[in-house]
Amino acid sequence: SYILQDYGLLDQAMKWAQWTTELDPKHEHGQAHQCELLMGLGYHDEAVKRLESFLDENPYSVRLWNLLANNYVIEDRLNDAIEAADFSLAINNDTNPWALMIKIRAFFYLENYEKAHELSEEYFQKYGCFENYSLLYDGLSLVQMEKYEEAIGKLKRINLSVLDHEEQQQVNLQLSTAYCFLRQPEQAVDYLGRVYGDKVQSSEEYLIQKGYIYLECNDEEKALESFKQVTLTPAKEFMIASMLYDHRRYEPALEHLLALEKLDDENIKKSTYAYISFCYKALGNREKFLEYLKRACDEAPGITKNAIGSFFQNMEPDEYYEYACNHE
Question: How far is CA 154 from the centre of its chain?
Fold first, then answer.
């Protein structure tokens, strides 16, 4: 059965695995192998049913509990995965790295990054090694926790060759993010380039993200240079305008927003008015600020509330204009 599995002949491997459990219904390896094959064939619900049935007969099987927990992660039943891994660890807490790794993954996917990091530290201390996937989930958690230097230390220790392509991309992207927020733009751009590989010269998404990095690192000149290489569509222009606006680069943001306002598309026009008004406010043009604020409140109150409502506490959009007229 294992030989057939190695050759990808999972249906035929399943027949041999079933014969094993028919000969010995409590054969742990046969039970586990059957369920592994079911997962490989995509029958996760059936795998769970059989694992639960096998565990009724063999409740102290660490391997079966771990398989069940891993399958729950695949099915996005993350709390169930943690519970199953805890049963496994209750049986063997000393030499059970797989169960601990499953818990790390589950907490990471639950966005409980502090717990994922805590368990990763326990993994490193208990097993005395920096296994690639424990480094991966710990590094990703540390980025989310804004502990960028520590995250870089973990992520750069990973042997990328053992990861699949998507995981390698994730590592490079998170390294780029960490360097960006440490205000080290050249390293951030370097790792961003590794994400896009051969597409660096042709990817406009890369150019936009590169521009964002330079904005975040307070290099407006290089940011604008990158943005100028983008072939603008309304969506891309609005994205660039939003980035510039969020980073308080109001003059170039206004230039892009006014270009969008000229388009023959009422929905696009309405989406710009609130931002245009506050660009003019920041640039000291009160007359234009009030003109566009009124237009925003009259024609797109919902968009306006989402965009600038935080500046008008406890007010509705139909009150913004009058308030602005009476307050500098």
Answer: 18
Q: Give the mean model confidence (pLDDT) for residues 10-19.
A: 54
- Largest distance between two CA atoms of the chain: 87
Separation between Cα atoms, residue 88 and residue 11, nearest integer Å: 29
**Cβ proximity of 261 and 291 under 8 Å:** no
For the stretch 233-259, pLDDT in tens is 999 999 999 999 999 999 999 999 999
Q: DSSP string covering 97-119, please?
A: HHHHHHHHHHHHHTT-HHHHHHH
The number of helices, as runs of H, and strands, as runs of E, in the chain is: 20, 0
- Percentages helix, strand, coil for the chain (3-state, rounded to 5) are 80, 0, 20
Q: Tens digits of per-residue pLDDT, 250-283?
A: 999 999 999 999 998 999 999 999 999 999 999 9
Amino acid at 268: I
Q: Which long-range contacts (CB under 8 A, 24 or more apart) does 302-310 make?
A: 303/270, 303/271, 303/273, 303/274, 304/273, 304/274, 307/274, 307/275, 308/274, 308/275, 308/277, 308/278
Q: What is the three-class DSSP state of 248?
A: coil
Asked if 176 and 191 count as a contact pair (C-beta separation under 8 A), the reply is yes
